[in-house]
Amino acid sequence: MDDKNNVFRMESTTTLRSESVDLNEKYNPFENRNVPHTTSTLGSFFHLLKSALGTGLLAMPAAFKNSGLIPGSIGIVLVAVIATHCVHILVKTSRDICEECRLGSLSYTDTCVKVFKHGPNRLRSYTGFVRNFVDYAMAGVCLGGTSVYVIFIASSLKNILDHFYPEHKYSVELYCAILLLPLVVLTQVRHLKFLVPFSIFANVCLLLTFIATCYYTFTDLSKAPDVNLISSVEQWPLFLSTAIFSMEGINVVMPVENEMSNPEHFLGCPGVLNATMLVVVILYAVVGFFGYLKYGESVLGSITLNLPEDEILALAAKILVAVAVFFTYFLQMYAPMDILWLRMKERISQKYHNLGQIILRTVSVTITVVLAVAVPDLELLIGLVGAIFFSTLGLLIPIVVQTVHKWERGLGKYSYILWKNALLLIVYIVVIVSGCYSSITKIIEKFI
User: Which residues contact 117 (CB under 8 A, 6 or more apart)?
Assistant: First the structure.
């Protein structure tokens, strides 16, 4: 789940115009953005790429185990196409509503709110509910994703320390509990600028880990164990959930697009979005395919856990990825803390704001650790979080928002937008129902 979840509320940036402006004049949102520090097209490409490449990439071999080589190769492309399309319709809808409301830009949440506010009359009363739903969905994605981070770090620590101290092997749950105190303490950092060095360090660690992992993956592939070309259909939902968890980065899209110096380069062909997703799908397919081909049915929730335990390079990779995810945790917690605190601070006296922040952050971190302890299996937790939170934010909300926006403005020839979104809604229902059922069933079988 990755840096993709590190997104902050971004208010619309629009230049003030005279009230005498001709309202019949076509409004160009791009010309009315007031962004102090814009990002180049290439910079935006790397920002979007960085948000999609992280720990989820290391989970792709386990996803292929649940599907088999053939369905996995096809499925990863289909998931990428659907995810890209949902990003596209969200951005296009945001631009359309900006043009109608004469605004420079809107955040993810504000886009949804404006669509309902200016949508069909019978839906306008749901505007407040929509804001709460989207904000809490965003917070759920971040908190669910950071729960995966906790189990990822704990599993890596266990794997490392079990090698050095084989006579003292402790459970993953205990390592999760040990992590609680340092995570609570460091999550109290409330200013993003103090987290930037940690972000840079984490990215370097992830890059080195990826290089080391590729080295081991592509070495001695001829000795690969037996693998399934097509796994049991009952396992496919876990593949879908994991793929969606890994590839969905829709919550970072609006901040990236809103801060581009040339936002017209974001959509279209090739465009920043399409170019990024092309690179992402190739990397995910290669790592997933060859990672599963290398380790077969023994591949774990993160391929780094399969690396040799007695080689310095492999040990270094495991330590680096644990450190990287540990520091990335605080970055991912920034967004949900910001969202939740905005909801809470008006109800708390000013003199208790500091105490309120401390309690909120402590409780939130504790929730992520408790969830990790409750489901101490990286593969199953990724599947559960992906099915519930990432599919909702990445599939459900964009298709609902586009449908509401187009309802009175034209659904296209033969209402193709309505039929297309109905099909996507079916995909969402299949993902969330089958993904939750498969994940929860396996969790019950394994831990209860």
Answer: 124, 127
Q: How does DSSP assign 290-354, residue by residue?
A: HHHHHHGGG--SSGGGGS-SS-HHHHHHHHHHHHHHHHHHHHHHHHHHHHHHHHHGGGS-GGGHH
Distance CA 361, CA 207 (A): 29
What string of DSSP letters covers 238-279?
A: HHHHHHHHHH--GGGHHHHHHTBSSGGGTSSSSHHHHHHHHH
For residue 101, give the nearest of 84, 115, 121, 87 by alpha carbon: 115
- 130-173 pLDDT tens trace: 999 998 888 888 888 889 899 999 999 998 998 888 888 899 99
Distance from first CA to last CA of the chain, Å, rounded? Answer: 26
Which pLDDT tens digit goes with each residue over 417-432? 999 999 999 999 999 9
Task: Give the whole-angstrom CA distance, residue 378 versus residue 309.
Answer: 19
Full-model pTM:
0.83
CA distance readout (Å), 319 to 12, 118, 152, 208, 325: 41, 51, 12, 11, 10
From residue 448, alpha-carbon distances to 177, 271, 441, 445 in Å are: 20, 48, 10, 6
CA atoms within 13 A of residue 186's CA, in its CB half-sphere: 16
CA distances from residue 51 to 225, 247, 308 in whole angstroms, order as listed: 33, 9, 28
- Name the nearest CA neighbour of 368 among 151, 155, 183, 143: 143
Residue pair 180/330 in contact (Cβ under 8 Å)? The answer is: no
Show the tokens assigned to 173. 């749950």
* Cα–Cα distance measured from residue 98 to residue 121, given in angstroms and rounded to the nearest whole number: 19
247 is written with which tokens?
């590839």
**Using alpha carbons only, what angle is made at residue 306 by residues 302 and 308, rounded to the nearest 5 degrees?**
140
The DSSP call for residue 121 is G
